[in-house]
């Protein structure tokens, strides 16, 4: 078993007045050769965007891009013709493939929006770009891990071109849950959204993360009320 711990305070940070961002891995002006990725998880950005502000049109290719609003609404538009509002309790995915342009703005003129943007390397390059967005009503059910992403279009959640699975859940204090890693080739990056957890003997608070590999099972215990977590189960190598 291999374990790495990434305390919240060790993340990269950027303050552009309209954007406050924390980077779990090297991104933009934040470069740390020891924090380039966790397996095929390349980017985990924790963004807060001011009212009415956002990211103008910009390109991507050959990346699976996932957006998860945590508070507020995110306005999306892309070169595939999609125009949408992504709300808290929803998840959005884009397979950039051969290339896309998109923009993301705070849909509110009065309140900030908080969201995670996550990039995962695909298993197949130059696929046809695609977009999907779904609501996740099961997230309202506490004390369970809910699958929100997988490699399989017929499974729960959205799907991507990679052998990756995302699970999310909110737990009461002292609740325990076990998670089975989906593949011997995969590791799990556990990112605490709110509250606190004990995982593999490590005590984690909000926005702390733990990466674990070379194990089949992960045991979690919520150590405070209304603790929320995101598990990112990804291949460790291409």
Give a quick set of tags describing it.
globular; Jelly Rolls; 55% strand; 0% helix; mainly beta; 22 strands; 238 residues; 2 domains
Description:
The structure is a single chain. Strand 18 and strand 19 form a beta hairpin. This protein folds into two domains: 11-135, Jelly Rolls; 138-235, Sandwich (Jelly Rolls). It has strands at 2-6, 12-15, 19-23, 41-49, 54-60, 64-71, 73-78, 83-87, 90-95, 100-106, 113-120, 130-135, 146-150, 158-159, 165-171, 176-180, 186-194, 196-199, 202-205, 209-213, 217-222, 227-235. The strands form four sheets. A seven-stranded mixed sheet has the order 1-20-17-22-15-13-14, with no helix packed on it. Strands 2-3-4-11-6-9-12 form a seven-stranded antiparallel sheet, with no helix packed on it. It is mainly beta and 238 residues long.
Helix content: under 10%
Oligomeric grouping of the chains: single chain
What's the helix count?
0
CATH superfamily of the largest domain: Jelly Rolls
Radius of gyration from CA coordinates: 17 Å
- What is the mean predicted local confidence, pLDDT? 97
Number of strands: 22
How do the helices and strands follow one another from N- to C-terminus? EEEEEEEEEEEEEEEEEEEEEE
Beta-strand content: over 45%
Cα distance, first to last residue?
Answer: 20 Å
CATH topology of the largest domain: Jelly Rolls
Which structural category do the helix and sheet elements fall into? mainly beta
How many domains is the backbone divided into? 2
CATH class descriptor name of the largest domain: Mainly Beta
- Report the major sheet: 7 strands, mixed
Spans of at least 5 consecutive residues with low confidence: none
Global outline: globular
CATH architecture of the largest domain: Sandwich
How is the largest sheet built, in terms of strand order?
Answer: 1-20-17-22-15-13-14
């Amino acid at each position: 078993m291999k374990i790495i711990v990434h305390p919240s305070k060790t993340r990269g940070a950027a303050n552009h007045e309209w954007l406050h961002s924390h980077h779990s891995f090297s991104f933009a002006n934040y470069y740390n050769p020891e924090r380039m990725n966790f397996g095929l998880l390349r980017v985990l950005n924790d963004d807060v965007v001011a009212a009415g502000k956002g990211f103008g049109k910009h390109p991507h290719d050959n990346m699976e891009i996932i957006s998860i609003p945590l508070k507020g609404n995110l306005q999306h538009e892309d070169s595939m013709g999609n125009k949408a509002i992504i709300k808290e309790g929803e998840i959005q995915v884009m397979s950039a493939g051969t290339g896309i342009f998109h923009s993301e703005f705070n849909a509110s003129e009065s309140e900030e929006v908080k969201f995670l943007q996550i990039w995962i390397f695909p298993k197949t390059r130059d696929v046809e770009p695609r977009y999907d967005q779904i609501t996740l009503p099961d997230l309202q059910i506490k004390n369970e891990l809910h699958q929100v992403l997988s490699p399989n279009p017929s499974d729960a959640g959205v799907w991507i071109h990679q052998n990756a699975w995302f699970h999310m859940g909110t737990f009461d204090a002292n609740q325990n849950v076990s998670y089975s890693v989906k593949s011997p080739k995969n590791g799990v990056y556990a990112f605490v959204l709110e509250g606190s957890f004990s995982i593999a003997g490590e005590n984690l608070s909000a926005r702390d993360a733990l990466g674990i590999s070379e194990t089949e099972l992960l045991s979690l215990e919520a150590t405070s009320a209304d603790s929320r977590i995101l598990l990112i189960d990804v291949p460790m190598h291409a």
